[in-house]
Each structure stands twice: as structure tokens, then as C-alpha cells.
Amino acid sequence: MMTTVKLVEQELWQREEKGLIGILPVRDAAEMTSVGSMLSQGVGSDSGERSSKIQVGTSDAHRHEGKNQQEVFQWHKTGVAARALNLSRGVEKPSGRVTYTVVLEGLCRFNVEELNTRGIYCTAKVSPLEMTKAEMEQVEQDPDFITLSRQFNTTATELISVFEQKHKTSGRIRVLLDTVPPHKLADIFVASFEMSFEEQLSMLDSVDLKVRLSKAIEIVDRHLQSIRVAEKITQKVEGRLSKSQKEYLLRQQMRAIKEELGDNDDDEDDLVALERKMQGARMPSNIWKHAQKEFRRLKKMQPQQPGYNSSRAYLELLADLPWQKASEEQELDIKAAKDCLDSDHYGLIKVKQRIIEYLAVRKLKPDARGPVLCFVGPPGVGKTSLASSIAAALGRKFMRISLGGVKDEADIRGHRRTYIGSMPGRLIDGLKKVGVCNPVMLLDEIDKTGSDVRGDPASALLEVLDPEQNKTFNDHYLNVPFDLSKVVFVATANRAQPIPPPLLDRMEVIELPGYTPEEKLNIAMRHLIPRVLDQHGLSPEFLQIPEDSVKLIIQRYTREAGVRNLERNLAALARAAAVRVAEQELTVPLNQGVEKLASQLLANRLAEGAEMEMEVIPIGVNNPEISNTFRIASPLIVDEGMLEKILGPPRFDDREAADRVATPGVSVGLVWTTFGGEVQFVEATAMVGKGELRLTGQLGDVIKESAQIALTWVRARAADFKLAAAEDLNLLEGRDIHIHFPAGAVPKDGPSAGVTLVTALVSLLGRKSVRADTAMTGEMTLRGLVLPVGGVKDKILAAHRYGIKRVILPERNLKDLVEVPTAVLSSMEIILAKRVEDVLEQAFEGGCPWRQHSKL
Ligand code: ADP
């Protein structure tokens, strides 16, 4: 409640003898909120006067200065006379405003008879509303009043006891009940509750004691009820909590009872099962201790508790890991191993020889720390299947971990258990699945790991492959060392070059370059077709794929280094055949009893009064489907027409090179990709411009520089090659040159396109097409020397696949030709070039026509 500052200053602050002041509730007429106000002098319950002069002030004199206060405030007619018990003054604000805090004691109600608002504070004429002693005595005799008083007392006592219970106090409030008369008590009680302003006013207006008491009873009772409801809710919540605690206790007791009874019904109790599994895991002793500690911790936890599940999953992993469990090592039979490799793989003589050597060393010295074998080659050349043959030869389980695209060290080593959703790394996870500690583990695509901010997987792999370190391989999730030394590691990669050198150092690279069409044909006839037939539940009785058809698939439908697409196409044929056979099988019984069945069906139909319609027709012997059933004994033989029907129109033909180089400005190069060697066309064109060179086709810096070198070289030799009329003439005068490497979406880089670029430019500027049967590769220097390149074997195989007959190679690559299968070499012409001029001489039909003018 706020009071009029002026009134406080004049009537209370400076006076020794403080008089009474009056307090009136006011409403702010605009906002309808309550504001306290004050009046002073001459009111008292014992004054005896029925009317006296009063001073009134509003609390916010500053705010309402200059305004007509009557307009702003609406004064309530009933108020309370009060005595100041305590007075304090706040620090004066810069605006000159002072705040007072006044503690008042209300003495009695009064009624305003006349209000004077014109002074510095308001004064009023009032009449007290309190009863005289005689009147009071009279009321106290009233039976209604007595009942109400009692009722009020009961409610108040109840409230007090609830309050005392809650706050654990006693006695002090209860004293009030005995000493203060009920109607005053009603005022005191009600004043301490939170109520709306309207309710407060109505309490103030209740001069009649009976009315006042009954109102107070209502308010106190309401308060009591709300306390009770709140209490009930709390109890309910507490009740629920204790229920789960109770359950936990009961479970603990049940467990104890079961243990006591030696009850073997363990399946229900997964913790017991887990413990048993842990005991059977044969962990090393230090790890067993660690696991025991974790298990004790788990037992103390409730299943709902956070961390319970993660702790359990961790212990399950510890229990599942093959700490000692190993496939039994048989005495290695080298001859059997050789047979196994031979029966699974055609060709690959050197590779198989190397594998046998590797196995022989292992046999003589089982714990020999030989290098890790790494098969390097394009997809589908048998890297994975060789690794699984090694496992078979050793009599061990085989597992494969794909490392393609692994950039996060945690993929290898796991996340620490503090992470949410943490998991062990792929190695530990794989070992858990394979269930033995000595499998053959294939690290697939080891060249495709990369490093970024999340660590370097290669360094983790280094630890895995290092015999010194892998005895105590540390997975972050597992957090205890695991011995990987019994695992036989084999790796595969498409290229050796991206493998980080320290990792490559631990491995022995065995290259698988890809197959010639003849080799593919043999692989298909001996291995792929029998396997594909078997996979589809077919046999040669149903489907035969003759050699000629396989050759057509190799030539027209696949153009790859390996045999993966070949296998896929064969599978497509098998699927188509399977559908036919399955259809026929259905019709066979019909065929056998076709007449009987048909007549029966007909009879049924007629009996139902239905028309004879389509269902009956397929049974007719003229129908082609049915006539097929007679051919069930004769197999389906795949011919060219069937190939087109099942595999679609041919995807490749030998005319592609010829078509593409038909216009000048296109040359045929050989490049090296992760899919093995590839034929790469280079296109050049010229247009009106300012002598600029444009390059497209997702090129790296090295290849861009090659293009610059090639252009420079051609410009320097322009006159020699009669590309420009005179030596001092600028070849690019008034024109731009654009060079494009098609398959624009595939990124390309490397220096080996140098000679191809020169050939394309000379072809363009000399307006002469290159030979379609000739492909080339070679880096060039600015002065026109041809330098050797890598991947020669793969490139020659790619050219061979394309049906290209002549390949131009750098002279210094001669040594690489020994690796190329002789069948391929004998069907091709290999031309060795020392200088770019040699290349040009061979690239054009009838030699380079401008050569004789060369001054070189
Ligand atoms: P990679 O791991 O090199 O990508 P895969 O080992 O998966 O290739 O080989 C693809 C398919 O080709 C396999 O079914 C495999 O058996 C078969 N294959 C590859 N090379 C040969 C071969 N020389 N003899 C028999 N089958 C082969």
C-alpha cells in the first residue's frame, strides 16, 4: 500500500505524537486498479465521536499533479483507521522524489461522509463503524453468531493444524484462537490469504459480524481445500516413486531367493546368463578382472537407470569376443591348396604361384611375420575370391572389412564409451561376428581410405598390420587390448599409388591387371556359367550358353578389365531362363493330363452355366506356351537374337573409334583409371577468338599443363608442319582453341595425355583425321621428347578390348611389355616412339604428310 508523501511528511515524519490516519481503498478510474490512500486525525474506536474531521491524501501526488483528482480516482466509502507502528525514509532520488515505508496497524472500520480533496492531502469527515460495547454484548448472545463463531473456529483450527504439520511448528498461531475474538480473527486470517481486490473490498464492507464471519469461513475453507488437493497430488507422485523402488527391492529379494534355492531357471535372468557367457569367453586374466568390475557395477544398477544398457552392451561384447576361440589349424596340405586355387580360378598363374609360396612359408614357420598380401587391380578380377580361397586353403574362417570411403579413425578403432551411441570399430565388430580369433581378414579397398579432421584411418591400420603392435590392438570402445596377431590379413586395392607409403611398406603388392577376351571366355565357360546356373537352380539341361554367345556378350555388352559385368549379364540370361522353366513346370502336369483336365474343366463350366471362355483356351494344344512343354527335354540355347531380347541392343561395337575420329581434331588416347585401363578420346576445335586456350572435362592441374605444353610445341613447329604459311606467323592469330576430354563428369589428371593432345591439335590445324585403329599414350617434354608412363599393361588391354590394333608407346616403356599376355601382344602392333614427331608419323594414315619438310 502506498501513502501520500505529503501527508506522511507533515503528519507522521516530523511529529513526536503521531495521530491516527485513515486508509481508503481507491480505484484508478481509468485502469480500475487499487491504490492506497490516507487520511488522518480524529478517528478512533474509543474516540466516542460519531463524526470527525479527516485529512486524506493520494499516494501519487506527483503523477497526478495538475489533474483533477476526482476525475482520476474513485474513492471507496469504507476505510480503516490505522496507527503507524514503524516509519522509514528512503534515499532522495535526483528528481527530488522520496519514498517512505510505513507499517500500519488497522484499528477500526469507518464510513466516509464528506471528502475534501483540495488541500495538499485529502481530508474527510468520517463516522466509525465499530459497534459499541453494548451492541457487542447483544450480538454475542445471538445463537446464529455463536454457531458461526464456532464454525469459524473449527475451520481455523483445522487450517492451523495443517499449516503446523507442514512447517513442523506448533503453538504460536494457535494462541491467537484463544485470545482474539472471532470477528477480529476473521479479519486477521483473511488478510493473510491471497485474494482478489473485489473480495478484499467485500470483506472490508462486511460490517455486520455475522456476514463477516460467514464470508471468512468460506475463504478459509477454500484455502484449506486447495492445500488438501495439492497434498493429494504430491502423495500420488510419491506413491508412484516408491512403487518402482518397491519393485526393485522385490526383484532383489527374488534373486536372493532363487540363488538360495539353486534355481536353474536362468533364462529369465539375463544378468545370470550374461555372467555365464562371460565365464565361457576365456578372457585373459587382467581383462576378466576388468569385466568383473564392470559387471558388479551393472548389478547395482536398475534397468531404467541411464548407463545400464550401455554397460550391458559393453559386457555382451566382452563376452562375445573370441579371446581364445580359434578355428582348428589343420596341417597345411600345399598340394590341396594348389588344387583349391586352381579349381576356383582360371589363369592367374603367377598370382597363384605367389600365393602358394606364401602358404608354404606359413606352413614351415607358422608364426612367421611375412608381409601382408595386397591384391591390386581393377574391379572384378578376382581379388576377393582369391582371398577367400586362401582362407579355404588354410581351413580358416573368412571375413571382409570394407574400407572404401572410411575417413574417420573411429571406424577402425571405435568411439570411446563416453560418447552417446558409441560402438566398437569395424575390426572388433567383425571379429565378434566371425567368432574366432584367427580368421583370414580381408581389408577391402585399402586405397580408398582418406584422412580428414576426424583422424587418419591409415595410421590405425598401420597399427593393425604391424606385428609388433597388433598383439595389443587398442579399440577405443573396448578399452582393453585385443590380440590381433593370429589374424591373417589380406588387402585389396584398385591402385597401389594412393596407399600411404608406410602402409604400402608393410604389404606385398600382387597385381592383377585384368583379363583378355580369351581369358574371359575361359573364365565364363569354366567358372561363371556353372556357378550362375547353380545359383539359379538351373542345369545345362535347361540352359546352354554357347561360346559364340559368350564372346558376343564380352564384345558387345561388357568392356571391362574384370568379369563382373560379364557375370551379371550371364545371371540375366539365367533369370530369363528360370522364368521360362518355372512357367513350364506349372504346365507339365496339365500337359500330362491335358485332355482329362480340359474336359473336366469344360464340364464344370457348362454345369455352372457359364460361357466357355478364356480360362479354357490356354489348355489348347495349339497354344505356344503349352507346346513348349513338349520341349522341356531340349534345353534353351542362347543365340544372338535371344541376347538382344534379354540384354537389350548391344552397348558397344568396334566402330566407335572410327566414328569418333572421322572428323579432324580428335585423337585416341589411353588412360589409367581405378577400373583398369580405358580408351580416352581427346577433342579439339578452333573458332574465331583472341588466341586463347580453353580446357574442359574436369581436368587436374597436371593435365592442363600438358595441354599448354602441347599447344606451345605445335605453335613452335607450325611452319615445319605447314600449319602456318610462314615461320613468323602466329598460329592462333584471330582464333581460340578449345580442348575437351569427353566423359566430362569423370575427373582426369596425369601427364600421359601429352602425345594425344599434340596429335589432336595437329589433326585439327592440319585438317586431317587420325587413324581410327591407333591409340597412344606418353608424356612429352616442351622440346618434344616422349617420356615413359605407368599402367602400360592395363592400357594395352583396354585398347585390345576396344578392338584397337595399333598402340603407340614411349620407347622407354618397352620393358613393361613383358607383363602383357602374349595372346594380346601377338594380335596388336606396338609402336615405340622416342619423339613427338615419331608419334605423329604413326598417327596419320600414310605417315605424317608434313614430315619431309621438318628441319629436325
Ligand atoms: P574383385 O574383388 O577383384 O572386385 P571378385 O573377387 O569379386 O573381384 O570377382 C568377381 C567375380 O569374378 C567373382 O565371382 C569371381 O569368382 C570371378 N572371377 C574373377 N576372376 C576369376 C578367375 N580368374 N577365375 C574364375 N573366376 C573368376
UniProtKB/TrEMBL annotation:
GO biological process, any: protein processing
Stretch list, region Disordered: 38-67
Active site: S752, K795
Record localization: Peroxisome matrix
Ranges for domain Lon proteolytic: 661-846
InterPro entries the record matches: AAA+_ATPase (IPR003593), ATPase_AAA_core (IPR003959), Lon_bac/euk-typ (IPR004815), Lon_lid (IPR054594), Lon_proteolytic (IPR008269), Lon_Prtase (IPR027065), Lon_prtase_N (IPR003111), Lon_prtase_N_sf (IPR046336)
Molecular function GO terms recorded: ATP binding; ATP hydrolysis activity; ATP-dependent peptidase activity; serine-type endopeptidase activity
Residue ranges that the Swiss-Prot or TrEMBL entry lists as coiled coil: none
Keywords: ATP-binding, Hydrolase, Nucleotide-binding, Peroxisome, Protease, Serine protease
Domain Lon N-terminal: 1-224
Sequence motif: Microbody targeting signal, positions: 854-856
Binding of ATP, residues: G377, P378, P379, G380, V381, G382, K383, T384
Summary of the function given for this chain in its UniProt record: ATP-dependent serine protease that mediates the selective degradation of misfolded and unassembled polypeptides in the peroxisomal matrix. Necessary for type 2 peroxisome targeting signal (PTS2)-containing protein processing and facilitates peroxisome matrix protein import.
Homology family: Belongs to the peptidase S16 family.
HAMAP family the UniProt entry points to: lonp2_euk (MF_03121)
Protein name: Lon protease homolog 2, peroxisomal
Organism: Rubroshorea leprosula
